[in-house]
From TrEMBL:
All copies of domain Dyp-type peroxidase C-terminal, residue ranges: 228-411
Protein's name in the database: Deferrochelatase
Source organism per UniProt: Luedemannella helvata
Residue intervals of the Dyp-type peroxidase N-terminal domain: 56-216
Transcription recorded as keyword: no
Cofactor note: Binds 1 heme b (iron(II)-protoporphyrin IX) group non-covalently per subunit.
UniProt key word Oxidoreductase: yes
Cleavable signal peptide: 1-30
Annotated family: Belongs to the DyP-type peroxidase family.
Cofactor(s) it depends on: heme b
UniProt catalytic activity: heme b + 2 H(+) = protoporphyrin IX + Fe(2+)
Organism taxonomic ancestry: Bacteria, Bacillati, Actinomycetota, Actinomycetes, Micromonosporales
EC number: 1.11.1.-
Matches recorded under InterPro entries: Dimeric_a/b-barrel, Dyp_perox_C, Dyp_perox_N, Dyp_peroxidase, EfeB/EfeN, TAT_signal
Length: 424
């Protein structure tokens, strides 16, 4: 059973005479091992999601409503400092996902003349199903000059090789890539922002924020208990997504194994991020019939245009009275379907974003796409290549950022830390 611990309780405990909470106490307070099928039962909106387990939380965990994603550049060449920071990050993450402050002395419990051990904006808020998911980018293994800064270049997995350029990409380097990443998901945006802010504070002098992205209104379901949400184009998104309850599919398509060639990644996975800007105003002037033809699904039910209900398999061979396929050859659902991509499946976990408007008064809005997979070059790449070459939806979207990260297995207990298998 997950424990809900208020920050008010922590402040009382860490005040006069209470002293520091040891790392082991965090395990006793908030952490239970999660099984491989964790995520099949959704906690309440204020509950804590267990931090420790075989796999990191925030992957098959039922997708929360809010996102704060951040990519970091490592600004030190000192391996010991980096490892120390990762240990500090892990302890802080375990505390914050349990509803505690980032540090034992908290936002107001420490010496008045010293900076607080927590930024304080989440005081009084519950855990809100916060999950923190950590990853490493290819640039951590060898920098742009080819240097092996941390003695780990030989341990870079083949699956982490750079993604190819896709037709139509308009990538901005300053919001792409990154040495490290953290995905914070929660039901309360302030809880997610608080978590990222504190990790950046703890990492000062070791890492700097390369870019970050806020997201809302999850655009995928990662559990069969969740209804399919809608993207900003108004269509249900992720109907055919890999679900946590599909244990055989999850094993085969999501989790890396030692047999894949990198022992330290066994039980981990790989994350692809793509920031996709939508030309909302042009889309809104497009007829309903054309919108549905582009997606290959009806806008209301989300059913394939070949007939049936939302979760019925599309019949790509079915034709209309004119002899043409009811689902066009360039329809999104056809091009993204596993049968068009050698059986490749992804676990999508994207979010809508609105970053204000541009100088012409158009919404800077779209989808922050995130997908988890066992090998992005065998799963994401063929799907995206197919879409980039043929998808008529490309007339209304533009890919402006891209990232690829290795997501290590879960943290076993309070003595373990993020990335221990890589640096240990």
């Amino acid at each position: 059973m997950a424990h809900t611990i208020s920050r008010r309780q922590l402040i009382a405990a860490s005040g006069a005479g209470a002293g520091l909470l040891a790392a082991g106490a965090v395990g006793a307070l908030a952490v239970e091992a999660r099984s491989e099928t964790a995520g099949t039962a959704s906690p309440g909106p204020h509950d804590a999601v267990p931090f420790y387990g075989e796999h990191q939380a925030g992957i098959v965990t039922p997708a929360q409503d809010r996102l704060h994603f951040v990519a970091f550049d490592v600004i030190t060449d000192d391996r010991a400092k980096l490892v120390e920071m990762l240990r500090d990050w892990t302890l802080a993450a375990a505390r914050m996902t349990a509803g505690l402050d980032a540090g034992a002395l908290g936002a107001v419990g420490g010496p008045a003349q010293a900076p607080p051990q927590d930024t304080g904006e989440a005081l009084g808020l519950p855990p809100s199903q916060l999950t923190l998911t950590f990853g490493v980018g290819g640039s951590l293994f060898r920098d742009a000059k080819g240097r092996d800064r941390f003695g780990i270049a030989a341990r870079r997995p083949a699956a982490l090789e750079d993604l190819p350029h896709f037709p139509g990409d308009a990538l901005r380097p300053e919001i792409s890539g990154g040495d490290l990443c953290v995905q914070a998901c929660a039901q309360d945006p302030q809880v997610a922002v608080h978590a990222v802010r504190n990790l950046a504070r703890i990492g000062m002098g070791v890492v700097s924020v390369r870019y970050s992205q806020l997201g809302f209104g999850r655009t995928s379901s990662t559990s069969t208990a969740q209804a399919t949400p809608r993207n900003l184009m108004g269509f249900k998104d992720g109907t055919a997504n890999l679900k946590a309850e599909e244990t055989d599919q999850v094993r085969d398509h999501l989790w890396a194994a030692a047999a894949d060639g990198s022992d330290w990644m066994a039980g981990g996975t790989y994350l692809v991020t793509r920031k996709i800007r939508m030309t909302i105003e042009t889309w809104d002037r497009t007829s309903l019939a054309e919108q549905e033809a582009i997606f290959g699904r009806d806008k209301g039910e989300g059913a394939p245009l070949s007939g049936g209900k939302e979760f019925d398999e599309p019949d790509f061979a079915k034709v209309g009275d004119d002899g043409e396929p009811l689902i066009a050859d360039v329809a999104h659902v056809r091009l993204a379907h596993p049968t068009s991509n050698g059986g490749a499946r992804l676990l999508r976990r994207g979010y809508n974003f609105v970053d204000g408007s541009d100088g012409l008064g158009r919404l800077d809005a779209g989808l922050f796409f995130m997908s988890y997979q066992r090998d992005p070059h065998k799963q994401f790449v063929p799907v995206q290549r197919n879409l980039a070459r043929h998808d008529i939806l490309n007339e209304y979207i533009r890919h402006v950022s891209s990232g690829l990260f290795a997501i290590p297995p879960g943290v076993r207990d309070a003595a373990d830390y993020w990335g221990a298998g890589l640096f240990g």
